[in-house]
Specification:
The chain has no helices and six strands. A two-stranded antiparallel sheet has the order 1-2. It has a two-stranded antiparallel sheet with strand order 3-4. 0% of the residues lie in helices and 46% in strands. By secondary structure, it is mainly β.
Amino acid sequence: MAFLIRGVHGTYGTVLEASLPQATGDWGFVTGLRMNLRRTFDYRGKGRSYLSAGCPAPAGFPSAVFPLARTTFDFAGGPTLISILSRTCKAKG
């Protein structure tokens, strides 16, 4: 299984992709997959972070609901499954 982390423009900014090899015949198939993209990581000995702190609440609003993560699963034959994880944050002040 190959993993790729890349930056993208838009709401989420970072994508973690996994490519699964095709199952051959009756030898087996995927029954589950778990991928974690943590807040921080080390690259060449230096700490990095994907997430920045901040609440997207507009001026005058005490809190906001925002999309934290999105998953997209593409299956052989064309079907796609999308799920979005949303969270609430409180504005400072």
